[in-house]
């Protein structure tokens, strides 16, 4: 299984290197459209190789997706924590009740009863 993972990572690296070398030409990214820049009087632009823009977009999309899923699943994680606390409380209560029930009994029988 380890070799399959290494083969996959190697092929992914080769594909990324090929894409990067095929898209080396510089592109200019503008923060706002030209008409809006003219109205506001603010112009922000940056010139980068195209592969940086492509890979940056992929990374930004993955990060946004992770954050979106983390926020969406918050209610499920909160419910799991609530149920875990409830189970722990019930287990503590059960141990206390068994201990009270076995008070005054033979220690060996009380241990056997607690184990079951």
Short structural description:
Keywords: Cell membrane, Coiled coil, Membrane, Transmembrane, Transmembrane helix. The chain is mainly alpha-helical and 116 residues long.
What can you see in these coordinates?
The protein is mostly helical and 116 residues long. It has a domain at 1-52. Helix content is 76%, strand content 9%. The protein has five helices and two strands, in the order H-E-H-E-H-H-H. The protein has helices at residues 2-22, 34-40, 50-72, 74-101, 107-115; strands at residues 26-30, 45-49. A two-stranded antiparallel sheet has the order 1-2. It is elongated and about 90 Å long. The protein starts with a helix and ends with a helix. InterPro entries: LapA_dom. The chain crosses the membrane at residues 46-68. Keywords: Cell membrane, Coiled coil, Membrane, Transmembrane, Transmembrane helix.
